[in-house]
Amino acid sequence: MDRRKFLAVGATAAAAPLAAPSIAKAQTTFNWKMTNAYGPGSPFYVEGPGSPTDFCKKVTAMSDGRINIQHFAAGELIPALEGFDAVRSGAVEMNAANAYFWAGKLPAAQYFTTVPFGLNFQGMNAWLYHAGGMELWDELYAPLGLKALPMGNTGVQMTGWFRKPIESVADFKDLKMRIPGLAGKVYAALGVDVKLLPGGEIFPALERGVIDAAEFVGPYQDRRLGLQNAAKYYYTTGWHEPSNVTELLINQAKWDSLPADLQAIVQTAAMACNLESHTWCEANNAAALKDLVENSGVIANVLPDEVVAELKTVTDKVLAEGAAADPATKKVHDAFMAFKAEHQSWAAISEKPYHNLPG
Amino acid sequence: MDRRKFLAVGATAAAAPLAAPSIAKAQTTFNWKMTNAYGPGSPFYVEGPGSPTDFCKKVTAMSDGRINIQHFAAGELIPALEGFDAVRSGAVEMNAANAYFWAGKLPAAQYFTTVPFGLNFQGMNAWLYHAGGMELWDELYAPLGLKALPMGNTGVQMTGWFRKPIESVADFKDLKMRIPGLAGKVYAALGVDVKLLPGGEIFPALERGVIDAAEFVGPYQDRRLGLQNAAKYYYTTGWHEPSNVTELLINQAKWDSLPADLQAIVQTAAMACNLESHTWCEANNAAALKDLVENSGVIANVLPDEVVAELKTVTDKVLAEGAAADPATKKVHDAFMAFKAEHQSWAAISEKPYHNLPG
Q: Is B352 a residue whose pLDDT tops 60?
């Protein structure tokens, strides 16, 4: 669909010259819907700079209204985790979520959200944009008539909230914990009873004791869910999610119907939101964590080194098993790990020494 | 200037309905010029994903040709460092460079490129986009009829190239070194004879012995200049430039003449390029450094801790003196340092432990 063709058609059909431009404009308007796995008002996932609703605003502004995307938070049009099927069927054109929610259908999709002990924000985007990651994502989704773009990233996440301190991996045993993705499989191997709950259901489950522990994002987002009122032990490091990609899922046939300029607008807006959303977390997490510790009695701690070392051993095993069980996963896994080794050799002499500079 | 007004005028003037859309389009086209402080073919600064020429392509694609920006590398229209005056006078609409090149006119501008022992990519963008940095940049440039947007970032840079090893700060004494920005003042305080040369002049100066040492960017960009053929000692850490912002400088009156949709396109393209250019460096530096070491006899080393500690002491002194000498610098300095303290308290429990995770 070429916008200039539309313009020509609009002009030919116009009775009076004055009406031509507005008719042409009306014919080139796309009214789309975007659903979201996260609930109304969620900071980063729904609201705020670089969020999915901000993405919709940017696209409307850049296209001067030629593409309008109506946003529906979880539950406003469909339930939280039904976006994949809704986009696939064409019921909606777009969905915002994380690809690891589709692990049941496509295990390899998990690598396009986050990998335990994997890549941070910079490494993940270097892999996706410039080292073959996007091509593998396209290859995985194309047979399903889907296309994905990264449109956000939380950066390093917090390990999560626990009712009791974690002193050894034995403390994970029989814990009921909300934790999605590959990290969930690592915890399961250590005896955790893993639950996959959407963000909006975490607080009531933790408060009522349906779960004993929960991972969500980081201080800024977690505080809004009120998790500090249901558990007090809050751990770092982000071994489980060193970064976390927000997925913009698009129906491929609808995408193909967009003229090239609107495709460029959508792609560029998603890339801008990727940076803007991430740096918004970076700007707000310090103050949020300070507030949680000072005003809500939260006990923030680093996971003991021995616990992290055991988590790494189990992660290697879980990832190897997943790759062995599914050729598509193996292909993505091997590419991811090759890039990780390369990127870490650079990070070891750039970002790592930066963090060790005198303050 | 409202695009719809233009469209209406175009339509009224059209003799035949068929011609109306193309006349309307012709009247809303902006043909702009962008100059650049870096020479033809420079990776990241001129060519490649997220570079200034890529920015121009993105803007043309998104606007469907309603704004076309003709790019001129250094020397193609004006010399390397004359972009500030060219944009100010309106001779060109845009310039790509680094704000620290304008230190002679506006000392505070240096803080919008990089600060020794300052903020990395994530912190710098968190400050600029979400913690008041852009507002301060606007305040500094507005009286000059200028507007700036960040449009790229190298990430952590390499300390640079030296003909002899650096074992103590005494080895800096009487060294003739190419080094711009605030780090140049730190080296000067340690007895370095500081030279400000554009990128394209570094290799001939280093090869002919006009300078003994040079800082440029990182492995990928430095290799293209051939610096490995003129000096063999290549140091990290990036104490001097923990990140480095590419500045898109815009003539404010020309900016004000753009309709809102084209302003949104320019802003979003700059933000997307900020991420894309940075992650391109991240994706390519490891292989470039390996190649330099294995095939060009480069000796890559970390600066000794005692040297870094002394550099920090001198940096604190130099920054304090600069702030005391200029109220505009003091205002920016104080805001930058307040945010740095806050951001580092978050980085200390997120990115820093990430880099210490078992590989």
A: yes
